[in-house]
């Protein structure tokens, strides 16, 4: 009789004892469930005799039963899985220290009141003038650049002209104006038989019955 009473007592104590695992973080438990579910997905990889649809259905039931079994056998801060809140605020030691440090720093903060800086009328006038003159200055700069490009082209053309060899006509004009020299004589050998420009002009005037007036020299008294 005594043994029967002790057995009933032990069975009643077992019924009152909660064997569920006590946890403090629902989020951490869910992370562990997800990690083991990844491992369970490979359980049926070696079952080649099962069809793909059958394997997929069995795997889904296995994962669902595993997650439900874990959730039923844990207590989150004394509450069941469904009673425990989804969003938990995990206040660890580091976050608490950070909050305390921020509060201490806030005690030493110096409040700075912004001051309105007065505007300088003279400076504002100068800025307005510069803004107004900016378009015209840009146009002037454009014209200057175009003028420089034109001068550059003209200078290139002048250099080409200076580098050209003199023609026969230009050599003859040079000889008539500046007189004969050795260089012009050497370069103008084929054109020696031509008449000078002055002689051609006199002959043309005579042909047209035009007699040029001779220069009159006025002598001063006593010469």
UniProtKB/TrEMBL annotation:
GO terms for biological process: mitotic sister chromatid segregation. One of its GO terms (cellular component) is MIS12/MIND type complex. It comes from the Eukaryota. Residues 202-223 are annotated as: Disordered. Residues 213-223 have a biased composition (Basic and acidic residues). InterPro entries: Mis14/Nsl1 (IPR013950). PANTHER family: KINETOCHORE-ASSOCIATED PROTEIN NSL1 HOMOLOG. This is NSL1 component of MIS12 kinetochore complex. It comes from Mugilogobius chulae (yellowstripe goby).
């Amino acid at each position: 009789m005594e043994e029967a009473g002790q057995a009933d007592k032990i069975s009643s104590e077992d019924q009152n004892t909660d064997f569920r695992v006590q946890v403090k973080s629902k989020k951490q438990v869910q992370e562990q469930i997800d990690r083991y579910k990844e491992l369970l997905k490979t359980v049926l990889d070696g079952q080649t005799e099962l069809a793909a649809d059958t394997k997929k259905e069995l795997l889904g039931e296995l994962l669902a039963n595993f997650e439900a079994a874990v959730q039923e056998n844990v207590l989150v801060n004394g509450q069941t899985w469904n009673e425990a809140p989804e969003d938990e605020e995990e206040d660890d030691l580091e976050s608490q220290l950070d909050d305390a440090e921020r509060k201490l720093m806030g005690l030493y903060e110096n409040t700075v009141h912004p001051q309105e800086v007065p505007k300088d009328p003279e400076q504002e006038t100068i800025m307005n003038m510069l803004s107004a003159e900016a378009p015209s200055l840009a146009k002037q700069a454009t014209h200057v650049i175009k003028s420089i490009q034109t001068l550059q082209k003209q200078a290139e053309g002048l250099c080409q002209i200076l580098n050209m060899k003199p023609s026969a006509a230009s050599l003859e004009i040079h000889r008539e104006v500046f007189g004969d020299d050795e260089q012009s004589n050497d370069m103008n050998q084929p054109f020696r038989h031509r008449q000078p420009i002055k002689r051609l002009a006199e002959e043309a005037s005579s042909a047209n019955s035009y007699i040029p007036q001779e220069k009159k020299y006025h002598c001063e008294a006593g010469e």
